[in-house]
Automatic annotation (TrEMBL):
GO molecular function, one term: oxidoreductase activity
Residue ranges of every copy of the NADPH-dependent FMN reductase-like domain listed in the record: 6-151
Protein name per its UniProtKB record: Multimeric flavodoxin WrbA
Alphabetized InterPro entries for the sequence: Flavoprotein-like_sf (IPR029039), FMN_Rdtase-like_dom (IPR005025)
Organism: Micromonospora nigra
SUPFAM superfamilies assigned to the protein according to its UniProt record, in alphabetical order: Flavoproteins
UniProt superkingdom: Bacteria
Length: 211
């Protein structure tokens, strides 16, 4: 059975050591993945000097190349993001913009380096918009080569204008827990399938695969 590693990118706006609900849910995803035999780690993006841009390296001390190296070494990527104004955080959007560079990064057979990697999403917020946020992030990740599993997201949102964050929610809702377990189970399963049977290289002849 191939070794599977996961990377959670916490896209909170808060620098360490500030408390982050995205980190709490991201860690719960890592714990659930660990029960599926997946090793993993979490990075808080704002703790690194990631520059705005759409290349793999924006130079001048850009923190993205080191994060990208860990991303390429993992088989599962989880984006953990809060909701602000009904949208993914600006840090999440910056991460997705940096991933745009993967469209032109390919292996010797013409496949994007992200092919065969699984992507999940974890969302927290105190307002509606989780499904919208998940949809935005999943679409972007799929476009740059990641594969999203069935039930590939987990989320928690409090009531509108409520002051309770997920980190303080007691008891933790069973619905979020079940979604987190499903995300971990299906991500690990899909990652092992893709490791065993990678996507075929692109067909440049115009003929249908298998024709």
């Amino acid at each position: 059975m191939p070794t599977i590693r996961a990377l959670v990118l916490n896209c909170t706006l808060k620098r360490s050591p500030a408390t982050s609900s995205s980190e709490v849910l991201g860690q719960e995803v890592l714990d659930a993945l660990d029960r599926q035999g997946v090793d993993g780690e979490m990075l808080r993006v704002v703790d690194h000097d990631v520059r705005f841009g759409v290349s793999t390296d924006e130079g001048d001390g850009d923190g993205w190349p080191a994060i990208r190296e860990k991303l390429l070494a993992a088989q599962i990527l989880v984006i953990a993001t809060p909701i602000w104004l009904g949208q993914p955080s600006s840090v999440c959007k910056m991460v997705l913009e940096r991933l745009d560079a993967e469209l032109s990064e390919t292996d010797d057979e013409g496949r994007m380096l992200t092919y065969g990697k699984v992507a999940g999403v974890a969302v927290v917020g105190n307002e509606d918009g989780a499904h919208h946020t998940i949809g935005q992030v999943q679409q972007a990740l799929n476009e740059v080569g990641f594969t999203c599993p069935a039930a590939g997201a987990t989320y928690w949102v409090g009531e509108a204008l409520h002051t309770t964050d997920y980190v303080d929610a007691r008891p933790k809702p069973d619905t979020t827990g079940r979604s987190t377990k499903a995300l971990a189970l299906n991500s690990a399963h899909l990652a092992r399938l893709l490791a065993d049977q990678p996507y075929p290289p692109p067909d440049t002849t115009g003929a249908a695969q298998g024709a």
